[in-house]
Amino acid sequence: MADAMIADPHVAVLIPCYNEAATITGVIEGFRAALPDADIYVYDNNSTDGTALKALMAGAIVRTETRQGKGHVVRRMFADIEADIYLMADGDGTYSAADAGHMIAELIDRQADMVVGARRGVHDDAGRQGHAVGNRLFNTLYRTLFGTDFSDIFSGYRAFSRRFAKTFPAVSGGFEIETEMSVHVFRLKLPVSEIVLDYGRRPEGSHSKLSTFRDGFRILWMFAMLMKETRPFAFFGLVAALAMTASGVLMAPVLYEYAMTGLVPRQPTWMLAMALMMISFVAMTAGTILDSVARSRAEQLRLWYNSMPALGSRPLAVTGRTGSADRRTEAA
C-alpha cells in the first residue's frame, strides 16, 4: 500500500495570486499539462484586474483570502486543502511548470518534507538591483544564523509533504513567509532538499509586488523575531554583550578618574553605566530561561509533527477526491 501511495499521490498545486491577470491563464495551462491529475487551486488575494475570473475560466479551483499578504494566503491554503503533496508556485509565470515533476520526484525519492526550487541566476535577474542585493544579504544572514540547508530562501517554487503543510504554524503575513518556512525546517531539523531550476522573467504587463525597502525591513524584522523565538540564548546574549560593552566604555573613564582623584564627578555617566550593566545581566538571565522554553516548544512541535503520517505510509486524501469536472467548478 505504501508503494502504491508513493506511486500515485494526490497532488494539489497551490497558486497564490494578486493582480496576475496577464499570466495566470498560462500558468494554469502549464501545470495542467505537466500534472494532468493534480488539483489546481488559485487563491485570489483581493485582485482588481480580473485574475479570479481568468483563473476560473482556465479550469482552476478559485478561492479567496481577504487578508492582504502572501503569508495569509499560504496559511489559508495549508489549512483548507487536503492532499498528499502540495506544490506551490507564484502566478507570475517566472517558474516553469515543466519542472513540477522533478520537484515531486525529489520529494518522494528523498522522503523529504520540503523541496525548494532554487532560482538559477536570480541575483542577475531580480528585476531591480535592490532586490538582488537583498537576496544576497538575507541568504547570507540565514546561513549565518540558521544553517546551510538552502541557498535561496526566497524561492516561491516549493513542494511540501502533507506532514509539513499541516504542522507549519504560518504566523507571517507577507512575503516573509518563505523565511519562516526555512527557519521552521531548521527548528525541527526536517528532511529537505533543494534543486536548481531556471528562473524566467516576468512578461510585458506583469509587475513585481515586492517593495525593496518595505518588504526588506519586514523580512529583517522577521529574522529578528524568529531568532528570538528559536535561538533566544543567542539573541539575548547578543543584547547582553552590547549592553555590557557600552557599560564598559562609559565606566572606564569614571573608574580611572576615581583611581586618580578618589572622586566621582560624572555621576550621571556612572549611573548610566551601571544601568546598562544591569540590563546585560537581565538579558542574559532572560535568554537562559527562554532557551529552555524554546526547547520545550520545539519538542512539542516535533511530537505533533511525528503524529502525522509520513508520505506513503497510508491513504490520506486520495479516497476523498471528487471528479475533475466537480473540482474545476468549485469556487469560494
Could you explain how this protein is built, in words?
This protein has two domains: 2-225 and 310-327, Alpha-Beta Complex (Spore Coat Polysaccharide Biosynthesis Protein SpsA, Chain A), CATH 3.90.550; 232-304. The protein contains twelve helices and seven strands. Helix 3 links the parallel strand 2 and strand 3 (61-64). The protein has helices at 2-7, 24-34, 51-57, 70-80, 100-109, 129-146, 162-167, 177-188, 212-230, 232-261, 267-307, 324-328, and strands at residues 11-17, 39-44, 61-64, 85-88, 114-120, 158-161, 192-198. This is Glycosyltransferase involved in cell wall biosynthesis. Residues 13-165 form the Glycosyltransferase 2-like domain. One of its GO terms (molecular function) is transferase activity. The chain crosses the membrane at residues 233-256, 268-290.
Quick overview:
Helix content is 53%, strand content 12%.
Give the helices and strands as they follow along the chain: HEHEHEHEHEHEHHEHHHH
How much helical structure, as a percent, in the residues? 40-55%
Number of strands: 7
CATH-defined fold name of the largest domain = Spore Coat Polysaccharide Biosynthesis Protein SpsA, Chain A
Domain module count: 2
What overall geometry do the principal axes of the alpha carbons give? elongated
